[in-house]
Amino acid sequence: MTTAVAALAFGVFPQLSQAEDPYDWSTTSAHVVTMELTYMPASLMFAIDTNVGSCGAGTMLTWKGSGADETARRANMNAVLAAMLAAKVSGTPVRVFGKTAGCEVKFVYFG
Fold first, then answer.
1. 29 vs 46, 75, 86, 87, CA distance in Å?
2. Distance between CA 31 and CA 19 in Å, rounded?
3. What is the pLDDT of residue 21?
4. I want to staple 44 with a disulfide (CB 3.0 to 4.6 A). Which of 4, 34, 58, 63 is the partner?
């Protein structure tokens, strides 16, 4: 009985059984090759030297910031920009996780 109820619930409400993953690609070591600052502070576009998902090496990836409000998102954007600049200048690798749709970056790790 319990199995039938669960099967029915997930069949009728498929979103309950399929939580959306925050990302569908990742890389363990990439180098920042270029950055576009035109859309700051709304978004930071940058390219890495590694293929990720269907986004080829050199494709502009987009970081849209993270935070509960506009002040927090701007502070986050500035912190990620500073870290990306440091990674580019020093050659330190970055790890990025994102979504193929729009080549959008969801998480950034440095080192």
1. 15, 25, 15, 12
2. 31
3. 73
4. 63
